[in-house]
Write a structure and sequence with these properties.
Elements: H1 3-26, H2 29-53
Helix pairs in contact: 1-2
Length: 57
């Protein structure tokens, strides 16, 4: 996994946690959903990158 992609995945996950926490604190369901979506994107990016490295040579 490229360092920049790993950083981007971790950033997406951190932003998602912040958004979810803020959404829960304010009762904003849209913000909670946005946080969950960002978390899923970060996890998908983190999972995808090692798979690219193990592709056919």
């Amino acid at each position: 996994m490229a360092a920049s992609e790993k950083g981007r995945a971790k950033t997406e996950q951190a932003v998602s946690k912040t958004a979810q926490t803020a959404g829960r604190a304010t009762g904003n369901e849209k913000l909670i959903a946005k946080g969950r979506a960002a978390q899923a994107a970060g996890k998908a990016r983190e999972t995808k990158e090692p798979l690219k490295d193990t592709g056919p040579h």
